[in-house]
Amino acid sequence: MKKAILSLTTIPNRLNNQDLNGGLYPVIKKITNLSYENYEIHLNVPYFNNKTNEEYIIPSWLNDFNDEKLKVFRTEDYGSITKLIPTLERLTDGEDIIITLDDDLEYMDGFIEYHLKKREEYPDYAIGFAGIGATDGSCHFCTTVNKDVRVKILEGYKTVSYKRSFFDDDFKNFSIGNWNDDMIISAYLGMKNIKKIVVSYEKDDDFTPRVESFPIVGHLPNERGGCWLFRSESVPDNHEIYYKLGYLEK
């Protein structure tokens, strides 16, 4: 069975939340109990949040979490892209499969298997279940689709899978100064001529665009965080530059 690395990060108040019905705990509990047998979870935890200067305090439940699949790594804070940069720095095999997740969503079982199945069909693509801007013009907000569709931007909340080889040593510097991880990664992949695709799910029969479809059950009762810390401010996401350079047209 092909090994998969599930990679994510979080923000201080979700990590520090002692309510086991909220915060990060339900996410970790769910993804440590998936049916796929060969996977690891890489949780990248900064020491301090660079935006708020809040300290990341490892809660007792995480220290006591008894599951060998879960690996906690302390790191610098790179913003939302912390879900990926430290994991790339640890992995050396270009064939390693990385699946990124968000920290405020409940995921259905089976998403690892489906990613790996679709990776056999699209081995050199980045694969997700939601995106923006179909290259054939068939949809703008592309989610819960009835056919596989290439997109300009992959949205990470529904999980995205990559091969380690998609990212070179220049990715870290490319990412600095941009708060939107979806935009960063999609532009970088476009620069490297790696296609991005939103795939259909074979068990869907309702193709109304929505959040709560495979592999999402729904949002957890958490306050806004992550990139929402920046959306109320005039912090650029560089999308105009990326479009001008052609990175988001591929």
Summarize it.
The protein has 250 residues and is α/β, with parallel strands linked by helices. The chain has a single domain, classed as Spore Coat Polysaccharide Biosynthesis Protein SpsA, Chain A, CATH 3.90.550.
How many strands? 12
Mean pLDDT over all positions: 92
Rg: 17 Å
Number of domains: 1
CATH class category: Alpha Beta
CATH architectural label: Alpha-Beta Complex
Shape, please?
globular
How far do the termini sit from each other? Answer: 32 Å
**SSE order, one letter for each helix or strand:** EHHEHEHEEHEEEEEHHEEHH
Which SSEs are present, and which pair or pack?
Elements: E1 4-9, H1 12-16, H2 25-31, E2 39-46, H3 60-63, E3 70-75, H4 85-90, E4 97-100, E5 105-107, H5 111-121, E6 126-128, E7 130-134, E8 141-143, E9 149-154, E10 160-163, H6 171-175, H7 181-191, E11 196-198, E12 216-219, H8 228-231, H9 239-245
Parallel strand pairs: 1-2, 1-4, 2-3, 6-11
Antiparallel strand pairs: 4-10, 5-12, 6-10, 7-8, 7-9, 9-11
Give an overview of the whole structure.
By secondary structure, this protein is α/β, with parallel strands linked by helices. The protein has a single domain (4-245), classed as Spore Coat Polysaccharide Biosynthesis Protein SpsA, Chain A, CATH 3.90.550. 24% of the residues lie in helices and 22% in strands. The protein has 9 helices and 12 strands. The protein has helices spanning 12-16, 25-31, 60-63, 85-90, 111-121, 171-175, 181-191, 228-231, 239-245; strands at residues 4-9, 39-46, 70-75, 97-100, 105-107, 126-128, 130-134, 141-143, 149-154, 160-163, 196-198, 216-219. It has a 10-stranded mixed beta sheet. A two-stranded antiparallel sheet has the order 5-12. Helix 3 links the parallel strand 2 and strand 3 (70-75). It is globular and about 50 Å long. It starts with a strand and ends in a 5-residue tail after the last helix. The model has no long low-confidence stretch (mean pLDDT 92).
